[in-house]
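We include this case.
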Amino acid sequence: MFMQKRIIYGIDIARGSPRARELPRYALAILRDGEVSHYNMLRRQKIFNMIQKDMPEIIAVDNIFELAADRGELLSLMERLPDGVKLVQATGGLHPEPLVRIARKHGIYVDPENPNDEAEACARLADLGVGHEVSLFEDITKIKVSRARSLGRGGWSQNRYRRKVHGAVLQRSREIENVLKDLSREKGIRFEAVNVKGFGGYVRSEFTVYAKRGEVPIHSMASNDAQVSVRSVERDKIRYVPLKPRTQRRKFTIVGIDPGTTVGIAILSLDGDLLYLKSFRGIAPDEVVKLIAEYGKPAVIASDVTPMPGSVEKIRRSFNAVPASPGIEVSAEEKISLGKPFGYSNDHERDALTAALLTYRSYKNIFTRIEKKAPENADLELIKLHVIRGDSIEAAIEKVKAASETRERPQKPRTSPERPEERAVDETLQRIRETVQRQGEQIQNLQDYVEELKQALIAKDRKISKLESRLKNFKKEAYSEVRKSKEIEIRDSTIESLKKELSNKNKTVKELRRRSNKLRKIQKMEIRGEGTPVKVIAAFTKESIAETREKYGLKTGDVVFLENPSGGGAATAQILVDAKVRAVVIPEDISHAAEETFFKGDVPVLRNIELERADDFAMAEPEALKTAIAAWEKEADKRRQKAREDELQSLFEEYRSERRRGLI
């Protein structure tokens, strides 16, 4: 059967820069199962055309920003990469080392002046599993189904077209949902759906799938009526994920697990690097064990709750790993703070990451001591493993050293005790001795740690005592000064009085500014024709009218709203008539005398006018106000006409009466 060759691209900039005006050119080294071929002075687009054809497993560079000028351009480039192609920074993650130094560590010669050498070194380092994969996208995919064109305006025919388009969106959405349901059953991938209903179907549908873009078998497309957009969700920060070494011994790891219907898994190296972080819905325990084993051999299995849940304990036993948990409840704020630099997609991943990070932190100091005490070229990981399992640093170093010497010299046949009973006793005694020694060393380590804490506490107590003494002296000096001079009290009193006066003035200024802003807002709305401003008078009294006049003024043509129209009479109404207001809006009836005064002064009194209130001012819809005033004037004209007719009728009756009496 034909086996596809492993293809790795190594790229190094040969001339120019992505930030320069002239487009840069690159050196490309293509590694096919150990055989390398070189290409010189290629433009970036040419390399991407070759990537589409070859579909390499890895694209390795010594600095990702040799490919792009900034994060936005890098994001655009990574979106163009085919599914499954990894972009790797061969020199490390957040804190990269020089390429020449890393290459030398792995027996690769590099001429720093030769771009071809550097490109080949990048490819060969990535082939060895050296470097960090660049991750710009969350393990989340967004799918949006929407109309393919605008519906426009129209009548019945347009409604039929709208029903047709919305029906197409509905059909496409259901097809995608069925695919995602199958994906969830087969691989445990979780998804969420939000549908916006429309006339005859859906206006749009949005699916959030908690998986990488390459794991979702749905692609962007468009038809006459519906279109589908599929995109990955961008991370807040670039994440650098260490590659798995190909030829080295399986690394020891620290694994955090959040159990439940959805299982969160976080895997750290013993150096604290995040190797894996993901969550699965409905995943079986044996699948969890298999996945964890792919990333190394767990030295510690951790949970963020105490005691450790039974499901996590079973996984721990599968690896014979050391159990770990915080021992105290960890707040949500602390979990968010711990996980933020690494990034996570949901609470399950966050809790698993918290368990792993807290465990690593508990060992970090002792790991540092191991690195200082261990001999050169010692197997640090194996020493750390022995310490995690309970050995002291010295005992762990001796064990690893002895094991190394044993592997190097021929093994001699071991002599067994003459009887099985003696052998069993010897083995038991040996185990007891080792346990006693290990526990003694653990006690010693804890005692040393307690002593360090005591010393730190003593130092803090001394510091607090010194600060309290200084504070006491400061107080004495201050009190002495106050007692020496009564003038300070007088000044303090004066300052306090001035502060209050200043505070009152500031409040007055703030109130005046607020009133000014409101008036300005009213003027703007009036200019734009968005509404007719209405000045609110709290009560139908001379005092309230005067207060409104003082705050906002009353001028010819103003519309006023009497919030409480009861209590006002003819004299009060005459004030508003004299102010020549355009109209008076009331929520309930006013006195007959007041209404008569407004009528004689030709000031419309309006009821049932809808106002949009905002504190002590309001706004009326211009057309509604105009219509109401016109209706009042029409009614007023009828009333005046009736009054004239009644007056004429009265004069006529008086004339007839005088004639009957012979006065005329």
Q: What stands out?
A: The two ends are 138 Å apart (CA to CA). The CA atoms of residues 570 and 594 lie 4 Å apart.
